[in-house]
Amino acid sequence: MTEASTVVRVAARGEGVTADGRHVPFAAPGDRLLENGMIEAGPHHQTPPCRHFPECGGCQLQHLDDAAWSQFIVDRIAGALAGQGLSAEIRAPALSPPRTRRRATLHAEPSGRVGFAVEKSHAIVDLAECHVLAPELFALVAPLRRLIHVLRPRRRLDIHLTLADQGVDLLVNGIMPEGLAAAEAITAFAETNRLARMAFDEGYGPEARWEPDAVTITLGGVPVPLPPASFLQATREGEAALVQAVKSIVGEASIVADLFAGLGTFAFAMPGRVYAAEAGREAIMALKAAAARSHRQVFTEHRDLYRRPLTPAELDRFGAIVIDPPRAGAKEQAEALAASRAPRLAYVSCNPSSFARDVKVITEGGWQIDWIQPVGQFRWSTHVELAASLSRNS
Ligand SMILES: C[S@@+](CC[C@H](N)C(=O)[O-])C[C@H]1O[C@@H](n2cnc3c(N)ncnc32)[C@H](O)[C@@H]1O
């Protein structure tokens, strides 16, 4: 029998919850809350691997072993569905290993501190180690610190790092360096660290100061031009798990719609003809150029799917539909999907709450959820991603 003080689950924000409903920070399922307020570690409580945990805002769940983290992900999805009166088969989550994050935003203070922001604060943890970033990204932290001392920013900078085909693509927001000393320091930094690109943006758009070769990211075997700070799935492993799930849903459909297509993560993985819609101008132009160059049958449309969702009649032309909206979900598009007669739908989501809300609308139109593949690509964080298979039942 479970004691009242035993932690039985992890809440959406990451704290443990006891059988009698008390919230306990940094407690894992199986831990016990003692009378003196201390936690007695249970079998799923692991020693956090990083010295910066829990101050660093990059991770919230390093005290959970992988089994408990998986269960958290499944519970989060099941809970969001239950909130809408829904349930579904939820498969075992595909977890990305440590040190595989290929895209991250770090912050730098004028003092030279470089790292993630402290949870619920503006302070920055000066990173001495990181167990989630790909080694290529982490290797830049110390050299960045030295560069910041030369650039002498007046305010905090946001540094977007992306691992591209040619190396790391770095975009620094908040400064446009001027003068010879800065120019020389930037060139030396980019050259020594073999950067693919280094760009700066002070609010008027990115300006590349280093880009020896055109920067690309290969998606589905196609090198796609990579605009600075583009959306990409956070890890290669996460991308592969989502792509595999989407491919199994789409099957042999000869024409597929990829809605909220980004740079074409799913469009370029599809076997047949693809229609790709995306509101980001740079992204859809990159996708279009890559499709033309690689002779892929991908038809692109620069379209705001919140203001102008595909209509049921437009959707009915496709053998399968893939939708991967931002965190807010796709309320307007979900309403049209509910009325569409397209046979298959792959809904990819980074937010179980908006997913459940949209899927509720879609199922009311005669669809059913076949299964859900969760993906944990933000290791030790409370972010949850998923790909869901839906088909018409009437
Ligand atoms: C979660 S990302 C998915 C991108 C892509 N499917 C991938 O896996 O790389 C969501 C995409 O939706 C785009 N987006 C945001 N709002 C949009 C809108 N109103 N209409 C169309 N696309 C939008 C973003 O630019 C972004 O590329």
Automatic annotation (TrEMBL):
Gene3D superfamilies: 2.40.50.1070, Vaccinia Virus protein VP39
Domain of life: Bacteria
Family, similarity comment: Belongs to the class I-like SAM-binding methyltransferase superfamily. RNA M5U methyltransferase family.
Protein name: 23S rRNA (Uracil(1939)-C(5))-methyltransferase RlmD
E.C. number(s) listed in UniProt: 2.1.1.190
Gene Ontology terms for molecular function: rRNA (uridine-C5-)-methyltransferase activity
Keywords, in A-Z order: Methyltransferase, S-adenosyl-L-methionine, Transferase
GO biological process, one term: rRNA base methylation
Top class in the EC scheme: transferase
Residues where S-adenosyl-L-methionine binds: Q233, F260, E278, D324
Record: active site: C350
Pfam families from the UniProt entry: tRNA_U5-meth_tr
The keyword Transmembrane appears for this protein: no
